[in-house]
Amino acid sequence: MVQKQFKTLDEQLDIFRYKGLVINDEKYTKQVLLRENYFFLNGYRHLFLKSETDRVFKTGTTFEELYSLFLFDRSFRNILFKYLLVIENNLKSIVSYQLSKKYGYRESDYLRPKNFTQQPEKQRQINDLLRKMKRQIRLNGSQHSATQHYASNYGYIPLWILVKVLSFGIVSEMFSVLKTEDKKDIADAYNIEVESLETYLPMLANYRNLCAHEDILYDNRTQKQVEDTVYHQLLKIPKVDDEYTKGKNDLFGLIIIMKQMLSEEDFKNMTMELDNVIQTLNYNLNVIKIDTVFDKMGFPLNWKELAKIERSVDETYEQGENRN
Fold first, then answer.
1. d(CA 87, CA 177)
2. Per residue in 45-65, pLDDT tens?
């Protein structure tokens, strides 16, 4: 097995030059490489390569242009992360409200296996989930002021407090094993079908973790796919073999999910913030065009129109679909 050897900043520059990248300012480039890491920056090279077989940069590609895509992805990721946290908080609030109202506010009440689906094939998953939640109470109960307050003063931690220390993944898993009527109560708060929300939550959890760990975002693809929506139709996203080509398991698919789970005001604000970083990238690109980046993201060119579509249009569409 060939081992990767440590490379000095000068050697890293030599590799970039050997692959055809233009280095205009050595001092600046070294400073960036020291701060940002050659490996992570190099992960953004693919759009700038002549081909995946040649693996050399297109003529005229500069380090600044490569770095601009890196910075764009970071800014885009940070904006999405901010609004994913809004969705996470909203979801935890809705879940804890609905379950506390029905099953009680003590752990001994809401952490009973009988509160979840009774499907035999789900029982092992439910038991594992309850162990995880109880473990979170043990580990984090004394580390957060709210959980510590309730545990010390009342001897229990209500679900609406516990959710603060539960991961998005655990809350998503909890939803997947709830009783059908409880899933519906939660999904109705978003005016989303239960089946759709069951698809959306693990996708949201995946992107939330990707953003938190600063992985490459713009070309990410998920295993699950967003179902066809009125938004695909109204934006006139093209189809191939009767399948929409964008907004399914790509980054625009995430945006479509967030459209349905954020308030209209939050979604419009997010759209404006995302557009600002897109415009900055567009200004800094030279060898490639913004359309190339959009294609990797799964974004249609008219993506901003999504913010102008009101949820009432979606509801009308769903009612028409149900009549058909």
1. 20
2. 999 999 988 889 999 999 999
